[in-house]
Amino acid sequence: MVKETTKLICITCPVGCRLEVTHEGKTIVKVEGDECKKGIDYAETELSDPQRMVFTVVRVKDGLHPVVPVRSTEPVPKAKIFPILRRLREVELEAPVEMHQVVLANAEGTGIGVVTSRPLPAMAEQPTSAPVGES
């Protein structure tokens, strides 16, 4: 097999190491530029099964705000991100919404959940007031 070099920026921590990964297919031969073991782990995962966390918002009916932020509970395979986002576009929660409320239990068959990132109360009833000049 032919050796290739792939340049990556590690997104595991805030340092953002610039990695140069020499590999034969998915087999890593050498990693340069890593400042910690996380860089090597990231390079291995990125070449064999790239994954990302999913963050977006979903609609909320009768909520204080019209949407609530949601996130995946674990990184999901990159190939599943857009199908998950399409599915989340169809979701509308009913207020009130609890923190870590499950939005999707098994997102696109990954076994990974999508949960809310914050609570969202229901819209408060507006008090009715008497018209001006009436008591």
TrEMBL record:
Q: Which Pfam families match?
A: DUF1667, Molybdop_Fe4S4
Q: Name one GO molecular function term.
A: oxidoreductase activity
**UniProt entry tagged with the keyword Transferase:** no
The reply to whether Iron-sulfur figures as a keyword in the UniProt entry is yes
- InterPro entries referenced in this protein's UniProt entry, alphabetically: CPE0013-like_sf (IPR036593), DUF1667 (IPR012460), Mopterin_OxRdtase_4Fe-4S_dom (IPR006963)
**Which keywords has UniProt assigned to this entry?**
Iron, Iron-sulfur, Metal-binding
Provide the 4Fe-4S Mo/W bis-MGD-type domain boundaries.
Answer: 3-62
* PANTHER family in the record: DUF1667 DOMAIN-CONTAINING PROTEIN, MOLYBDOPTERIN OXIDOREDUCTASE, 4FE-4S CLUSTER-BINDING SUBUNIT
This protein's name: 4Fe-4S Mo/W bis-MGD-type domain-containing protein
Give the organism the record lists.
Candidatus Hakubella thermalkaliphila
Q: What is the lineage of its organism?
A: Bacteria, Bacillati, Actinomycetota, Actinomycetota incertae sedis, Candidatus Hakubellales
